[in-house]
């Protein structure tokens, strides 16, 4: 079996897409040692190096950058792809971005993490163009792979004839088990972390709902529940607005930002925090939930369908547009040791279902069934 992977949209920037690619496809090439994999890299990242010299993986450099307008990259790559794929005889070709590049032979798959750009709040023109591009992707490929049952139903709501398979995102569980007490002490000292703090993880963008989280922390402060907030993530355009809200709420010095942490440092802050909060208004999945589970960290979550799916309706939830309810959920878990224990015990058991070994087996079965 010969498999092509169009990974030109993936780079070194921390993301769920990168974590999924390294974890699932790294295991897949081990699981299918007789298959030949060809990985198409973006111009600005050595994606093929992530496979650690696997003998059945060949990487091909492309002139296509990982970042920039998806449509300029697509049209700029048209000449490249027509030549690059002309002489290949792929049994399967999988793309991780849209618009779809379709191989001339075999079956073409497409992985879709979420479809947030289809909604009008991202701009009427962008919404219209993205919906058109996604529709063409679905019409031209043989199977869409998406990351949750929630996303599957969401896509089917727009494109009821789509062929969709679900393979969850996953996590390297061994990384959290390797964290030592000295690691924790080093991270606490390096970043000046307090003994007790609430943690939020995710890039600083509107859908992460950090403005309401700041409002919730102010409400907790006003009723005597003093607790610091640590937000871990890179700025994606929302930091200035968040800092303005922090100042108006008089929380300067109580809220701290960290970015560009190593994987070990991220695992440490999960283990050091008192509570993880995930206030997003929209997600296709939610890898930080798995990270909090693996770290033995209690959590409170916005009440969106995919979060209930991942946690099987056993979590503590709040409406994402209600800062008072968010504050009440945080206060409840911080004040009840029995509730923290329940959430921690559930998380440690539940996260076992998201190992990359298991998920790569599901993908291998899908590939084999399609050839």
Could you say what the CATH architecture of the largest domain is?
3-Layer(aba) Sandwich
Q: Which H/E pattern describes the elements?
A: EHEEHEEHEHEHHEHEHEHEHEHEHHH
Span between termini: 8 Å
Number of distinct helices: 14
Structural class: alpha/beta
Strand content: 15-25%
Tally of discrete structural domains? 2
CATH superfamily of the largest domain: Glycogen Phosphorylase B
Text of the CATH class of the largest domain: Alpha Beta
List low-pLDDT spans. none
What report would you give on this structure?
This protein is α/β, with parallel strands linked by helices. The chain has 2 domains: 2-170 and 355-369, Glycogen Phosphorylase B (Rossmann fold, 3-Layer(aba) Sandwich); 173-353, Rossmann fold. Helices cover 44% and strands 15% of the residues. Strands 3-2-1-4-5-6-7 form a 7-stranded parallel beta sheet. The protein has a 6-stranded parallel beta sheet with strand order 10-9-8-11-12-13, sandwiched between helices.
Keywords:
371 residues, 14 helices, globular, Rossmann fold, 2 domains, single chain, alpha/beta
